[in-house]
Amino acid sequence: MERAAPLWLAALLGGLAGAATFDLSAAERQNALSAGQALAAKHQGYPVADYLIYDVHDALQLHPDQGSVEAVQVATPWERARWAGYLLSVQGKPVSEQAAQVIDDLKSGQVDFIVFAHSSGEGKDYQNFLKTFSAAHLNLGSRDLTPVNTAYSGAAVDNYRDLNGNVTFLWSGNVTYRFDLSQMPSTPQSGTLSFTDASGKKWNLKVDLSQYK
């Protein structure tokens, strides 16, 4: 990803592995908050690359065949707690459990998929483009899950280049699909996330939850 650095894609670092953690103990959550604080202290940005199941090579360059999606992130309870610790530290705020819960409301047994995207056109007619994304489906084993919640960020204007190198200004933002795995007797680690984006492109993305902490 070569896009200059919205916070969510700054400083793509490597190195996480293991099984997805859907049920954090108090000690594990505190460790995640502390990990976020440590990242902020290094002033190297927030490492999200290990949690991406899809990203474009250059998010500034528009390619019609790529649809409107720039990246898709898996967000586990551990990662969201780490993000809360990081964001509070960057903002110069105390890292407390109460403050972290305002940022991180992901409950045990849940997983988020955050879809970062841009509109297919300019102007106010496209400002609500995120609402045109379809409902998502997460297929794990024989189970077809639908989100327990779908959240939309605000849309902001950003600049992109078309295939001729001309600058165009489109809306950008994210859709978060939240799935609850807590009622499943066992959680298969691999499956497929499916949805249709604002351009009408259908997505079927492979997911392996065992890769995420």
Going by helix content, strand content and strand pairing, the class is alpha+beta
The proportion of strand residues reads: 25-35%
Please give the domain count. Answer: 1
Give me the count of strands.
Answer: 10
Sheet having the most strands: 6 strands, antiparallel
End-to-end CA span: 22 Å
- By DSSP (H or I, 4+ residues per run), the number of helices equals 3
Order of helices and strands: HEEHHEEEEEEEE
The overall average pLDDT, rounded, is 89
| Overall body shape | globular
Percent of residues in helices: 10-25%
Describe the protein in words.
- With 213 residues, the protein is α+β, with helices and mostly antiparallel strands.
- It has one domain.
- The N terminus is likely disordered.
Question: What is the fold's blueprint, element by element?
Answer:
Blueprint: H1 26-42, E1 52-55, E2 69-75, H2 77-90, H3 97-103, E3 110-118, E4 137-140, E5 143-145, E6 149-152, E7 156-161, E8 167-180, E9 190-196, E10 202-208
Antiparallel strand pairs: 1-2, 2-3, 3-8, 4-5, 4-9, 6-8, 7-8, 9-10
